[in-house]
């Protein structure tokens, strides 16, 4: 059996979202232990022109959901960016994970070769010659950028995290 678009997308996106979920739960514990208002963490930025932590999580979820939606031509629901607590961001991740889990592998048939075009913003369009290019060159790099930035924001704010927190359960074994 060859490596499929389902395997190339659902597994890394699910692993990354689960890692992000775990990191956020650690951040909630950290905020309680250190008596830090969690909105300080949610609004933190590495530089003034960057999105805050909360937006990094929202975009990571959207990139996963919208990427799979476009590849499978599934009509997955949009999620409003209304989260204002870590608990609400964790729920958003859970919702996204549920949506990804509900996508049947058969929906990915032909997605590697199918061209994609969409308008992510008014007066702005993106086109990809095929789904493989879209997944490898756009979805996964953007997804990891936002997950990594969320990790870095929390690490910068003193949360003790390591590579294992980022990698999560990547399906390998060490020993």
TrEMBL record:
Gene3D superfamilies: dinb family like domain
Domain of life of the source: Bacteria
InterPro entries documented for this protein: DinB/YfiT-like (IPR034660), DUF1993 (IPR018531)
PANTHER family: BLL2446 PROTEIN, DUF1993 DOMAIN-CONTAINING PROTEIN
This protein's name: DUF1993 domain-containing protein
